[in-house]
Amino acid sequence: MKNTQRQYSDGDVIFREGEASTCVFVIVEGRVRLTKADGKETVRLAVLGPGEIFGEMGILDNGARSASAEAEGDVNVAVISREDFIHGLQDQPDMAMAVMRGMAQRLRQSGQMVVRGATREKNEGKEKPQCGFKGAGSMGSRLLDWLFGGDRPHRPRALQLRASYLAGDEEGHRQARHMVAALGRQKGFKIRLMKKILATGTTPPAGREFAAATATARAWLGQAGADLLIWGEAQNTEPSITLRFVAAIAEDADRPGDFDPSLPLCLPMNFPVELAPVVAAIALAAAAPREPGKILGRRKALLRALEAATPIVHDLPQDLTSVERATVQLCFGNAAATASVLQGSSGLFRLSAQLYRSALANLTGSGQAELRAIALKQNGAVLQALADAHGDRQLMEAAADSYQAALKVLTLEEFPQEWATTQARLGVTLYKLFLKENDTQLLKRALAAFQDSLQVFTRATTPFRWAEIMNNFAQAAQHLGEEMRNAEVLEKACGACRASLEVRTRADAPMLWAQTQNTLGSALFFLGKMSGETGHLLAAAYAIGQAHDYYVDIGAGKLAAVARKNLARLEPLLDRPEKPQVPEMKWELEAGETTAR
Fold first, then answer.
1. Per residue, what are the HEC states of 443-506?
2. Which of 371, 530, 532, 597 has the least CB density, counted as fewest CB within 10 Å?
C-alpha cells in the first residue's frame, strides 16, 4: 500500500472534527491527541502513539471527521489516501466493510457518550474521564491486517536480531555464541547466530571499509528478514571484543542518539551476564524498524530495557577498562536519547547528557580523539534538544561549545559527513542563540556554519537536506540583513528560499514548502521595508498567502493565524496608490520555524 509521510510540530492540527475524510494516518513517531467538542468544552478522547492508526472512521462510513487530531510534540505520520486504503481491503471487501462500518458507528457512539458523560461529570464537579477509542479491538486488528499484510501495529512485535561470528574468534566462535546466549534471555527481540564473518581489510576496520561492511550487512539482513546485525572483532591481546550495530534500514543520521555503524561497543571477553540488559538496550536503540508493529514493539521493549539497565550503567563492574567503560556510557547514552526521541519528549535527554560527560571523562588516552569527538557531537545534540524543549539559553551555549569542540577532530578531510552534520547543527544553535541575545556576531557565525555544511550537503547528493540548510541559511540571512539594513544580504536570503523551494515543492514536502514560503515572505517584506518598493511587498504578500492557504487547508490554526497577522500588516501598504512608506513594525515568525532537528 502506498503512503507518504508528513511531519507536524507540537500543537499542529492534523484534522478538525467535521472536516471531510480524505485519508487515513498511521503514527510513525510521536503522539497524537484526539479530542471532541461539546459546546465550549473540549474533551480528550485518547492519546495515540507509534504504530497506531487514526482517521479511518470517516473513510469506512463515508462520514466527516468525528474528532479532531492534534500533534503532541513532534509527530511523523504515514498518510494513506482513501483510494489506497479502500484498495487494501479488496481481498475480502464485503466482510471487511461490514465489520468496519459497524465498528466505526460504534466508535462514533462511544465518542458521543464520552462527551455527554464528561459534560455531566464536569457539571457535577467531577474530574473528566480520560477515555477514548480503546475498545477498537477486533476491528482495529482486522483493519491493520488488511493494511499491512497481517502486521498489527497496535500490537507490539518482537524485533529479529542476528549476530555474526566475530573476526579474530574463529576457533569455536566462543564469543559470538556467548553473546547470543546472554542476549537470548532478554525480552523484546529474538536473536539468532549468523554463521558468517563480516570480513574487512583491517582489524579494527578503517575508512571506507565501514561503508562496504554496512552494505554487506544490510544485504544479509534483507535475505534473513531481520532488523539488526551485531558484528565486530575479538582482540585476544586485550582480551576484549568490539561490537558494532547495523540496522537493516538506514535511520536518520542527524538526530539525538543516532547510531553510526562504525560506533564501537567494547566489552571484556565473556562479558558478565549482568551486562546483557545493557547490551540489549543498546541493540534495541540501534535497530530502526519500519513495520508499524515492530515500531511499537521496539519502543516498549527499549523503555523496559532502559529501566532495567540504567542502575547497571551507573554501577559498572570495576574491572572494565576505561575504553570499555566509556563506550558503554556512550552507546547507552545514545539508547536513552533514542528512547526520548521515540517518546516525543525530552525526558531521557538529561540521562544521555550525564552519560556523555562520563564517557568524555574516561576518554583521556591517546588515540581516543575520534571517540571523544563522537561523544561531544552527541552531547551537543541532546543539549540542543533540551534547550529547544525548555528555551534555556545556557543549554544552547553549552550545545554550541560541544559542537565546536567536536569540530576540532571531525574535519572535512577525514570525516566529511560528521563534519557537515555538526556544522549544520552548530548553525541552528547559533541562530537560536541570536534570537535570545540579539548579537549579530552569532548570526554571522551561524551563516558561516551553514555555508560550510553545504560543501558536503549538495543538491545533487542530498537534495532535501540541502534544501533544509538553505532554508535555515535564509532565516539567518534575513535577520542579519534587517539588523544591518543590508539589501544585498536580504537578496541572498530570498535567493536561498527560492532555491530551496525548487526541492521543497508543495507536492513533495507540503509543510516544508509552506514554511519556506513564509521565510521568503518575511525576507521580501524586510527588503520592501528597506526599499519602499511595492514589488517586494506584493511578492511578500503572495508568498505568505501561499503558506496561509496551505495552513488553512490542513487545519494548522496557529500557523495560519501568524500568517494572517503578517498579511494584515501588509494590506494597508499595498492599498496605497503612491509609493508606500513602510513604517516600523514587528514581524511575527512562526513558532519553531527552524527546520533542523
1. HHHHHHHHHHHCCCCCCCCCHHHHHHHHHHHHHHHHHHHHHHCCHHHHHHHHHHHHHHHCCCCC
2. 532
Give whole-number Cα distances, 150 to 228, 378, 457, in Å: 22, 37, 39
Residue 271 lies in a domain: yes
* Residue 69 and residue 128 in one domain: yes
pTM greater than 0.90? no
CA torsion, ordered 553, 554, 557, 559, to nearest 10 deg: -90
Chain segment 37-64, per-residue pLDDT in tens? 766 677 777 788 877 778 877 776 567 7
Range of the domain at 235: 156-355
- Count Cα neighbours of 551 within 13 Å in the Cβ-side half-sphere: 25
Q: What is the torsional sign of CA 347, 315, 192, 305?
A: negative
More confident residue, 6 or 145: 6
Nearest-CA neighbor of 566 among 589, 584, 592, 550?
A: 589
Spatial distance between the Cα atoms of 286 and 132, rounded to a whole number of angstroms: 33
Indicate whether 581 belongs to any domain: no
CA distance 541 to 505: 19
Spatial distance between the Cα atoms of 35 and 65, rounded to a whole number of angstroms: 11
* In a shared domain, residues 197 and 107: no
CA angle 302, 304, 309 (to 5 degrees): 90
> CA distances (Å), 573 to each of 378, 431, 481, in order?
48, 30, 21
Q: What span, in angstroms and rounded, lies between the C-alpha atoms of 528 and 543?
A: 14
Task: Give the cell for residue 113.
Answer: 457518550
For the chain, what is the mean pLDDT? Answer: 82
Q: Is residue 417 part of a domain?
A: no
C-alpha cell at 10: 507540537
Residue 394 has a pLDDT of 95
**432 confidence band (pLDDT: 50, 70, 90):** very high
Check which CATH number belongs to the domain holding 140 and give it.
2.60.120.10
